[in-house]
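Can anyone check this?
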Amino acid sequence: MKNIELSNLYLDISQEILGKSLINNSEELIFIVCVEKSLSYLADYIHDNSTIDLKPIEHLNCLYKWKELSNSIALRNIITKELSSEGLFSILEKSKSIFFREDNKNLITTSEINDLKKFNLIIDRYKAFKELLRKTLDEC
């Protein structure tokens, strides 16, 4: 399969998981991994099919692929926004850290949780990000 097809496949799987009314812990992890894999394959596709002159990124993980792609003048503003503290990648990393966090019984305050609202936010941000990238690359 081509990188764009794999990206779309993993995005579809993550959306199917959200289609359920309740998500258990293992499905949370599968959702997070699918979104990361989709983003990773999308980065590979953009790198391979554009005229961007950058270093090879195949050996990098998802986040570092996008950091490398952000060195492109044409994509810098779009990608940097999603790499910021309020961007897609931060939300995804925070969800991953929440999943692997051990609850501290000694804390009085409540901790942030993963829920359908957060996962829907991730998918919505990802779709908007992907669409903006597509429009930018098609026009350039």
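Reply from J.R.: I decoded it. The two ends are 26 Å apart (CA to CA).
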